[in-house]
Specification:
Number of helices: 3
Radius of gyration: 19 Å
Strand content: 25-35%
Order of helices and strands: HHEEEEHEEEE
């Protein structure tokens, strides 16, 4: 009986831990998404030191700079965060139950039909746009030709 009670306690503790971690991921994702539109100094103070910084388009007259924070990236232009990006290896991305392992069917099931489906240059996959009006941004789900999720970006409108 004691073993059964101990096993049940361990099982409940395990389930609670998983729920807590998923909630943390969703909270962290929401926090990162809300950086979009933030002033650079406020963002950097909160996000910390990036692991890499590089111009977004070298050789062009672009003023955008990419900041790599390992689990996400941010594009800065004119002292403002104009885009945040979650890549396929972003382990902590969680938005309304979607993760980087979600399929295009999962995205459509949870978020509905996209506002716009855009074929990427040279036929290298698709972008699905979903507006986020509260922060004057759009969320883009990037799919490869096989409709596997490659990255998610949130960009100012």
């Amino acid at each position: 009986m004691k073993k059964l009670v101990a096993a049940m306690f361990f099982f409940l503790f395990f389930l609670t831990s998983i729920s807590f971690l998923n909630a943390q991921d969703a909270n962290q994702t929401s926090k990162i998404i809300n950086y979009c539109g933030a002033r650079f100094n406020v963002f950097l103070k909160d996000a910390g030191v990036p692991i890499d910084i590089s111009p977004l388009c070298s050789g062009e007259s672009s003023t955008e700079v990419f900041f790599d924070f390992k689990d996400f990236g941010a594009v800065i232009d004119k002292k403002m965060v104009v885009r945040v990006i979650f890549f396929s290896d972003s382990k902590n991305f969680s938005y309304k139950g979607l993760t980087m392992k979600s399929t295009y069917k999962d995205v459509e099931k949870i978020l509905g039909k996209p506002n716009e489906k855009i074929e990427r240059a040279s036929g290298n996959g698709y972008l699905w746009e979903y507006p986020i009006d509260e922060i004057f941004s759009s969320m883009y789900f990037w799919f490869d030709n096989d409709m596997k999720l490659e990255k998610v970006s949130v960009e100012l409108k």
